[in-house]
Write a structure and sequence with these properties.
Elements: H1 4-56, H2 62-74, H3 131-144, E1 153-154, E2 158-161, E3 164-176, E4 186-197, E5 203-204, E6 209-214, E7 219-220, E8 222-224, E9 235-236, E10 241-249, E11 258-263, E12 271-275
Parallel strand pairs: 1-12
Antiparallel strand pairs: 2-3, 3-4, 4-10, 5-9, 6-7, 6-11, 8-10, 11-12
Length: 282
């Protein structure tokens, strides 16, 4: 038969071993709980520090400072030189979004007024332009400026021009024919403008132009190329005369008041003839 004393000792030893394992499990659980709590506290502290840095404007990390400095030094300012920024951004505390007026924001655009050429180093813009370019520019400005019109004379009278006189030597009503692209047939007037050179030098007519207005509203008439038209010669010799024949579409009901303009020189006033034109052809 087994010994009761030995059984009692074995049971006591097993009981003590169970208690020891239980204590160890409790200790491991407590240690794990403490480690988790420490990690939570450390994470919360790190998050609070990161959020507080963004809210309080603490300086960024060294790497961010170096990147920002490199970008700022590489970006040219409004004068084209590196090392300075061109102005406050709207997204920064110095920009208009943080209380500054929009008119105070600086711009990187060059401060150049429209219509004026930028001066080049070493002289005025005109000094660097060829003489031919200056002449063309001045002629273009002169042509774009409205020219004065001399006092109008009657259709049968003589008008004075620089270096001579001009007259309407013939005026008639015709039925014009369409010749060429864009030409329109219809009732028109045909007239001859004669220019006499009374000076001792040649009179230039290479830039001479003829225009016509008709009716009370002074509507511009359409010029035709056919039906007996003939342009002025390029010049008129001293003491001689030259003429040109011109055709314009003018409705019969607008011929009670007709104005014929002779613009023969860029530096001279426009010569004007006015009066009633014939209504019926033939």
């Amino acid at each position: 038969m087994p010994n009761d004393g030995n059984q009692t000792e074995d049971q006591a030893g097993r009981a003590e071993t169970g208690i020891t394992e239980l204590e160890r499990s409790k200790r491991r659980w407590i240690a794990a709980s403490l480690a988790g709590a420490v990690m939570l506290v450390a994470g919360a502290a790190a998050w609070s520090a990161w959020a507080g840095q963004g809210a309080t404007g603490e300086p960024p990390l060294a790497g961010a400072v170096a990147s920002a400095a490199a970008g700022r030094n590489a970006a040219p300012d409004k004068t084209g030189q590196a090392g300075e920024t061109g102005g406050a951004s709207e997204d920064t505390p110095d920009g208009p979004a943080f209380g500054k007026k929009s008119g105070e924001a600086k711009s990187n655009e060059p401060n150049t007024k429209p219509g004026k050429a930028t001066k080049e180093p070493g002289g005025e813009p005109e000094a660097n332009m060829p003489a031919g370019s200056l002449a063309v520019a001045k002629d273009a400005d002169r042509a774009a400026t409205p020219k004065p019109v001399a006092r109008a004379v009657q259709l049968h009278e003589t008008a004075e021009v620089a270096g001579g006189v001009a007259t309407i030597s013939k005026l008639e009503a015709i039925q014009a024919e369409a010749e060429g692209i864009g030409q329109i047939a219809g009732p028109a007037i045909r007239f001859v403008v004669e220019v006499r050179n009374t000076s001792t030098t040649e009179l230039k007519l290479d830039n001479a132009e003829i225009t016509v207005e008709a009716g009370a509203q002074k509507l511009p008439a359409i010029r035709l190329d056919g039906s007996g038209t003939k342009l002025f010669p390029l010049e008129v010799a001293a003491g001689t005369s030259a003429s040109g024949t011109f055709v314009f579409l003018v409705p019969e009901d607008q011929r009670g008041q007709v104005r014929i303009y002779l613009n023969y020189a860029a530096s001279e006033s426009v010569v004007a003839f006015e009066g009633a034109a014939p209504r019926k052809a033939g």
